[in-house]
Amino acid sequence: MKHLIAKIVKIIVIAYVVIASGIFIFQEKIIFHPEELSADYSFEFDNTYKEVFLKTEQESELNGLVFFSNLSESKGTILYFHGNASNIQRWGEYAVDFTSIGYNVVMFDYPGFGKSKGDISEDILYSDSEDIWKWTKSNFPSSNFIIYGRSLGSALALHLAEQHEPTQLILETPFYKLIQNRFSFMVPFGLKYEFLSFEFIQNVNCPITIFHGTNDQTVPISEANKLRRYLDNNDKFIIIEGGGHKNLRKYELYHSELNKALN
Length: 263
Prior knowledge:
- This protein is α/β, with parallel strands linked by helices.
- Helix content is 33%, strand content 20%.
- The protein has 9 helices and 10 strands.
- It has an 8-stranded mixed β-sheet with strand order 2-3-6-4-7-8-9-10, sandwiched between helices. Strands 1-5 form a two-stranded parallel ribbon.
- Strand 9 (208-213), helix 8 (221-225) and strand 10 (236-240) form a beta-alpha-beta unit.
- The longest helix is centred in the N-terminal third of the chain and has 24 residues, at 2-25.
- The N and C termini lie far apart (70 Å).
């Protein structure tokens, strides 16, 4: 009996080490789920848009889209950092939420996503976002400049807002840090990617609005709630009852509160 228990324990330990090692080795494939696009791919949107390219200091060749306000005069510019999957063909569909109420939207793919080329790492993403900021400020100057970050993009948005001072920062389904408590036991070796949102948010000096759903299975609201301690009295944490990780824009509360924030 003791021999059988020892054998089972040994199998469990070996399996744990194999899985934990696999997570460390293949972490890019676990964290990022890009969909590449051919260089001649033609985007299709109902919104008026312009395709742009940007060569960054990290030698990334980034592909981006600019969506234009539906109003004759723009109310401002929104720099949008998307999630960890797909490409801007998908994410560009959300631009209408902002262009319909008078904003220009700038959105770039990360290296390896869509038509964007280059290596990827946490530092490269931060550096590239800085170059995107500079490009956007130069090409679409505005007294009302907003940074919007969704899921993984919320960490990049926070890091950028920490370095600069946009008019405001809006975060959708953000996380406290990349490795949530419920998964930390699986990464005893740590990861090359940390995305410490809780550190960045402490140094942000502009108004912050956070959207999160109570039924988010990817980033539980309990993780996002940890960011609330760093919010000021004038900041907002909007809870979407029943909302998940990918569907907040289906809820009227999201749109009504987004309109309040932007208007």
